[in-house]
C-alpha cells in the first residue's frame, strides 16, 4: 500500500506492506534510525514518536494508520544543527549512557512539556515511568526534563 504522511515537517510517500509497524516504516522505509525498537510489545518506550501531538509507541501502530498524520521523531526535535533545549539538558545532566532509550525518553518528555510545561517532578516521573532505562537510574533524566521546562513555557 502507498501511504502519505508528514514526518519532521516534510511530506513523505512510502510503499508498505499492510502489516508493517510504523517503527519499521520509519527506520527501514525512511531511514530515520533514531526511533529504536526494543521489546516490540509497547513496554519499553524506545520506539516512542509523536503522532498528531501525542506520544505513541510506534511498534504498536501500523504504518497504514499514519495516513495523513503529522509525525515527529527524535530527529525532528531540532530544526538546525544545534541541540534542542531538551536534548542539551539531557547532555548537561548526563541523562544518557548507552543511548538506547534516549530517543524515546526525549520524545516522551517533549510531548509532556509541550502540553504541560510546568509539570512537577511527580508528573514527570509518572509520564516517564513507561520508558525503561537500564543505565542511568532515572535521576539524571528527571533532572534534565525539570531543567528543560523553562524552554517550553510561553
How would you explain this protein's 3D organization?
Strand 1 (2-7) and strand 2 (10-15) form a beta hairpin. The model has no long low-confidence stretch (mean pLDDT 95). The chain is an alpha+beta fold and 154 residues long. The chain is globular and about 45 Å long. The protein is 34% helix and 15% strand. A five-stranded mixed β-sheet has the order 2-1-5-3-4, sandwiched between helices.
Outline:
This protein is of the alpha+beta class and 154 residues long. 34% of the residues lie in helices and 15% in strands. The termini are far apart.
Order of helices and strands: EEHEEEHHHH
Q: Spans with pLDDT under 50 lasting ≥5 residues?
A: none
CATH fold naming of the largest domain: Ubiquitin-like (UB roll)
**What percentage of amino acids are in beta strands?**
5-15%
| SS elements, strand count | 5
The total tally of domains equals 2
Mean pLDDT: 95
Quick one: biggest sheet? Answer: 5 strands, mixed
Order of strands, main sheet, comes to: 2-1-5-3-4
CATH superfamily of the largest domain: Beta-grasp domain
Distance between the termini: 41 Å
How much helicity do the residues have? Answer: 25-40%
Q: Structural class, from secondary structure content? A: alpha+beta
CATH C-level class of the largest domain: Alpha Beta
Oligomer: single chain
Q: Work out the helix count.
A: 5
Topology overview:
Elements: E1 2-7, E2 10-15, H1 22-29, E3 48-51, E4 54-57, E5 70-72, H2 85-92, H3 102-115, H4 121-128, H5 139-152
Parallel strand pairs: 1-5
Antiparallel strand pairs: 1-2, 3-4, 3-5
Helix pairs in contact: 2-5, 3-5
